[in-house]
Amino acid sequence: MGTIEINKNGKAYEAEYFIEQGLVTVYGDRGQETTQLGGISEQQVAKFLLSSLICKGHIDPIGPDAA
Questions:
Q1: How much is the mean pLDDT over the chain?
Q2: No. of helices (H) and no. of strands (E), the chain
Q3: Is 61 a domain residue?
Q4: I need a surface site. Which of 13, 26, 27, 32 has the fewest CB within 10 A?
């Protein structure tokens, strides 16, 4: 388990991720993304999944500039 943060389009996003049986899952506000852990680090996979949640509108930005 861990926490990741990325900046996209000038906004910060943060999410928790979990690893179980070789699968990485990132949870957003309105959904989740899961994929197999491959040849890159778990944090890199989690950031990719978080980016996908952002693109789908399934997670809100954090911080004072979130609106």
A1: 93
A2: 1, 4
A3: no
A4: 32
